[in-house]
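Schema walk-through. Below, the input block comes first and the output block second. Nothing else is stored per chain. Lengths vary across the set, and this one has 369 residues.
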Amino acid sequence: MDKTKIKYLVGIYAAAMCIMGMLVPVPIVASVAAAFPNENIAAVQMIIGIIPLMMAVSAMLVSSQLASRVSKKKTTLVGHVIVMLAGASVLVFHDSLAQVLAASAVMGLGLGAVQNSTDALIADYFGGKQRSFVMGIYSTFVALGGIIWTMVSGILGSAEWFHSYAAYFIMIVFIVIEAVCLPEGHLEPKRKVNVFANMPKEVAIITVMSFVFVLTFQLFSSNVSLLVVGRGFGGTVEASTVMTVAGIAAGLLVGPLFAKFKNLSMPIAWGVTLVGLGLTLVAPAFMVLCVAGFVVALGKETYVPLEGNFAAGNSAPEGRAFNLAIGMAGINFGMALSPIVFEAVTSPFGATIDQKFIAGIIVCAACVV
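--- output ---
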């Protein structure tokens, strides 16, 4: 790999580390709930859940409207500045939950732009086995960023919950790196037909599969704190951190896995997550739950870059950014809607956590088959 492409990767990976800036509110959800005792807990949890939802909407809008007109570097930088300003605004505007939710929604729009444009930059400059390797390492940097943002957030928010949002000022450093190192990217050819007309059936299929798969993966993230309390384990933060560490390991596996198994790598990743969900269901102790979280995350974080590589590899230059966005939208919608879907599916039977995991295991097994 030449020096120019290495420089590009420095900028792309700097942006990747900031995508998990969406996790800044995670360590302070309980404190936010305490600050607004009259608000429904589900509404409080939306300060996290609304972000991936807005990311999906943003990515589709950006890719369908701007990919042929505005450089991907400019889209990344503008999106990143939006994230930083929206996040930092909570330091000033935190008198109501509505203000915090509004900031989260705007952050989601900015993160969607960053994620989609950097995915598209990888597709522009890297192909074949090199692309799968680069996307795998991209996933590793995303996970590494997750560790950094949650740690900084927890430290800053120890006195006042809204101080956690000062973490977004750190993004200034990453924005400068991106400004120096990111390539402009290739403008897509102007479309002569509707964006959906250029979308290959393979992309449509993998989008639906991604949505269903991430519905099941998100069961662990959505319920780990309840599992810890319900089983008397203690240590929710540790269980969540183990999942993030798994993301780092997963990124290193993507390239070799794809080189050996090609598109069969994706059902292998689903199978790994299936094992993790089953282990979670029967975990008798906290350490076993941590192992289960690691296995669940290993499957998901291996799958995501493979899905992006599959979508890019099955797309022509015209419409590639949109196809990448559609695939990522399936993932983000799955993350956002998982609690609602499994609550609805299991509510006739009592909606216990075990029932939700059993339902998720059945769905995940169907995906593997």
